[in-house]
Amino acid sequence: MEQLPILPLRGVVVYPLIGVTIDVGRPLSLRALLAAKEHETDLIVVTQKETGKESPEQEDLYAIGTRVHIAKMSELSNETVRVRLVGKERVKINAIDETKEGWFADVEPLELVEGEEVERTALVRLLKEQFGKLVGSIKGLSPDERRRFEMYERLESLTDYIASKLDIDVDLRQAMLEEPDAVKRGLELLEIMTHEVEIIELEQELRERTKKTIEQAQKEYYLREQMKTIQQELGDQSQDSEPNRLREKLEALDLPETTRKNVMREAERLNVVPATSPEYAVIRNYLDWVVSLPWGIETEDKLDVKHAADVLDDDHYGLESVKDRILEYLAVRQLTNSLRGPILCLSGPPGVGKTSLARSIASALERHFVRVSLGGVRDEAEIRGHRRTYIGAMPGRIIRGLKQAESKNPVFLLDEIDKMASDFRGDPASAMLEVLDPEQNVSFSDHYIEEPFDLSNVLFIATANDVSQIPAPLLDRMELIQIGGYTELEKVEIAKRHLIPKQYKEHGLKKSQLTIKEDALYEVVRRYTREAGVRNLERVIGSLCRKAAKQIAIGEKKRVTISLKKLSDYLGKPKYRYGKGETEDSIGAVTGLAYTAFGGDTLTIEVALAPGKGKLQLTGKLGDVMQESAQTAYSYVRANAERFGIDPTFYERQDVHIHVPEGAVPKDGPSAGITIATALISALTGKKVRRDIGMTGEITLRGRVLPIGGLKEKALAAHRAGLTTIVIPH
């Protein structure tokens, strides 16, 4: 055992027979160098566990170090010395003494393990082979050092040399120093180098692939530029080239001057941008859209009011108010020839012919027709388009519809405008404000086209089921036309004129093969369908046609006649019932008239009295408004009890139960007020109410009656129910 000066190192591990040059500046390290020089002894170098520690303690040093010889030492400044150290052997540090001259360590050589000679020889060859693949990629190695590893024949020396040159962590370097078995060190190094070689090969492969891609792109660019030069020299610049094709089309368009300048600037860019660039495809798509729009293309309106009236009458039965508004527009247009297109909103229940009416208007005007469904649209970009910076950007539905119409003055149907919704992508209803404002849509700007387009000649027609769902600013820009449900008479007439001939044609039937009697049609309307429009009626007629077609096809019959008696054989039992008048005069039962989404109907309001304490009970699935209407009628009767010959204290001894059948059907609205009041007075006075009278009207606390709606439908329902008199507000 020897005692030698000890020099702590940061981030450096010294191996036997390997030289290393370091700069020494810490006082502790300088004292160790001075002691070794004065005593003419070797030096012990040992690595710190934590490289960041400026003043290490003894426990901060590893237990295994290297005995080194100081080959050369020179001062760089007063505080720094550069020293060249050459490793001699691995040593084990048993103890460290702190003296005036510095730290001295009691050390002894580390016992090394000898392996089998054959295994050592094989490992030497493998290590040289792998290191040979890596040596070219290690930075800072001189040409002499890159060849030096080939001179090593002993496994110990070779592993120490490779470990000192590889770019590995300090902890791993120290582990290599502490390992006494050279075979284990060699196997560990072999694994590290194999991994590094794989990484280098992969990097090389990626580099080659990238180089080929760049070379191919450059080659295509040079060839394309050469082709342009050749075409210019020949004076024949590709008649079929994409930029020239688009330029010719753009020059032929009737564009506003500002728009022409902007679009031609984009066309110039197309000539400059390489065809392989993503920007080329964006510009080309944009110019394709600009070229495809009907900038100056208009169809000539057929301003013949009589012809338009005939077309509308042929296509639709009823709907007089809508037809009158369209004919008014045409008449004014015929006289002034300068009126902007109105924006109409057809509002009504499903199946009453809103969409088909818009088609008829287009047919009467001989304009192109475009339908855009707005149901479920939640994205503002669906209306105004996307910015061109987005991948897959395209114009909004308005511009796309104009491209489809191929004219700038089509009839543009905005179907289901009340079904638009808003979410995080914006509010499409707000985007529609510019489209539907006659003062603004002269210069409608789509985000994709980015040029103003004149929509003032477009005849916009919107359809909606529920006007309350349309935002107020949007509704304010439209002229609202309410379309009510069809009456029974109108439905039967529509069936005879339109639905039956259409279904005959669709099912391959002739008029002589199938006859549907008028009384059967009325029964279908009343008891097999319940709707405001005629969609279900058309389906039921289609079902009758199919059953008749089957009988004719199998030879069962040659001619089918469907009468009221035979109707249940074809359609089964009726699905619905309609209100009928009472069979006899009753106390506390009055027939009321109701207006529903399916037309008019009658309902009987019943009042029953029972001993109690004046409790008022309402049943029949009544809405809030109808419940309040019943309470108003009850209060009116209590306030005017003496006038009707009723005991003023009846509410103290009797409970009142008001019921409106059918119990499962929701009911709401104020117009049952006088009916409830009449039923209450009848029950409390014991006087019967005539069974042939129906009534409707909203009652106030003072007994006044307010106006009602749906009078036509209510009157028809009363007639259908067999009533002879109806009581209505004057």
UniProtKB/TrEMBL annotation:
Gene3D superfamilies: 1.10.8.60, 1.20.5.5270, 1.20.58.1480, 3.30.230.10, LON domain-like, P-loop containing nucleotide triphosphate hydrolases
CDD domains reported for this sequence: RecA-like_Lon
Organism: Exiguobacterium alkaliphilum
GO molecular function annotations of the record: serine-type endopeptidase activity
Protein's recorded name: endopeptidase La
UniProt EC number: 3.4.21.53
UniProt cross-references to PROSITE patterns, sorted A to Z: LON_N (PS51787), LON_PROTEOLYTIC (PS51786), LON_SER (PS01046)
Localization of this protein: Cytoplasm
PANTHER family: ATP DEPENDENT LON PROTEASE FAMILY MEMBER (PTHR10046)
Chief place where the protein resides: cytoplasm
Coiled-coil residue spans: 192-220
Pfam assignment, any one: Lon_C
Domain Lon proteolytic: from-to ranges: 584-730
Domain Lon N-terminal as annotated: residue spans: 4-197
Catalytic reaction annotation: Hydrolysis of proteins in presence of ATP
Keywords linked to the UniProt accession: ATP-binding, Coiled coil, Cytoplasm, Hydrolase, Nucleotide-binding, Protease, Serine protease, Stress response
Catalytic residues of the enzyme: S671, K714
